[in-house]
Design brief:
Elements: H1 4-17, E1 24-28, E2 38-42, E3 48-52, H2 61-72, H3 88-97, E4 105-110, E5 113-118, E6 122-126
Antiparallel strand pairs: 1-2, 3-6, 4-5, 5-6
């Protein structure tokens, strides 16, 4: 017999694979037993993708837009301006300083996603 966690996990994976947005809240009441009622709320079905910048010429701004657009399945032109989420000039300056392979990273929120940009050109998009 499956436990609740396994059944919920299976349900969320199935919904995601079928393109169903799973957010919201429900009250779960077993038939005839209101004493065993639960309020279930799913706020986010998180997923993560990683993008590797192919050249340093487009890094980091265009690479961030490419990574987030790919994650969302949209064109870059459909995204909000990056400068609404982070100071783009400061970001570029910081990563120019890391161009010699020094370790470094910055994490910020953009277009509803947690974006982490690493000095080696890797970009992780979560959510």
């Amino acid at each position: 017999m499956r436990n609740f966690h396994e059944a919920l996990h299976e349900l969320l994976i199935s919904a995601h694979e079928n393109g169903i947005e799973v957010t919201g809240g429900w009250q779960v009441v077993p038939e005839g037993d209101t004493a065993l009622a639960w309020d279930v709320e799913i706020t986010q079905l998180a997923r993560e993708t990683t993008h590797q910048s192919p050249t340093t010429d487009e890094f980091p701004v265009d690479s961030i837009l490419t990574a987030v657009a790919s994650h969302e399945g949209v064109e870059k032109t459909g995204l909000p301006p990056l400068q609404d989420s982070i100071d783009v000039e400061s970001l570029e300056t910081m990563f120019d300083d890391l161009a010699d392979g020094q370790p470094g990273e910055v994490t910020f929120y953009y277009s509803g996603h947690r974006v982490t940009v690493y000095g080696d050109g890797q970009i992780t998009v979560e959510g």
